[in-house]
Input
Amino acid sequence: MIIESRAPVRIDFAGAWTDVPYFSHPFGGATVNAAIDRYVTGRTVVGAPGEEKSGSKNDNAEGENSEGVSVTYQTDVPAGSGLGTSSALNVVWLSLAAARSPQNSLERSRIAEQAYQVETVLGIIGGKQDHYAAAHGGFHLYEFEEKEVRAIPIGIDASRIAELEGLLTLCYSGQARHSSNLHQNVWGGFRAGRREVVDSLFQLRDSAYIAREILESGSFDRFGALLSSQHKCAQQLDASLSNELVEGIFDSVKNNISGGKCCGAGGGGCILFCSDSPQKQKLVAQTLRDSGVRVIPFRFAMEGLTVTMSG
Output
């Protein structure tokens, strides 16, 4: 029997950091993100041929173990990208164990929550939006409270999705970031009551509702400024959320973008830029390539976690 699972990674637009329990439990968090057609895939083969073991009584005539199990994972996303790859991997892993596709939104949220709890048990500090994006796919506003996460679909039609894709450029800075270290810095400042950290977190949360309104209305002339507001807030959270490399990449394309932000926790990884027109978007992509920065082509993925079985 072969079980195959696939979950998309995501680009976050607004509200990063507010999905972490340190903030979301007392104040409520909100994020807006969208899944893209870059995936974590997993494959379990039950009854897979094993390696021949001389003298083993379990070997059959061909030297194969018919009771073997092979589990493999794969992704085409750079390590430390800030696209939620590790969270998508945990969603895939749990879905392989369950050996069935989620049948509705409730089941998708359940496996996302379970994947998050696995990380909590392991002592990993982080938020929940990545797990939910991998499970649900598409465009969503997620609202986070201590006892509930609400996955609210964002109404955006295919023509507007295509228009937005034509304005966005996703690139990899070449510098992997370690989100656990960034989280320690930010939440240390939060617990210490640093005013700029507290204010920025509330601004980030509230910006998620602005992001939903922009996406649903198609007011993409405001989208670049929204992304830049996220980058500015991130810099207020902690200086480590940006660096000379990241700012240098921003500077190289500043004439052809309306805004941009680092993906995920920041500090490196992937960067998302928005331009005013498809023509300027092409100039951004070419400038980045000419500078040796990897551009990651993508389309938005409306389908979340899928599991198939055969054999």
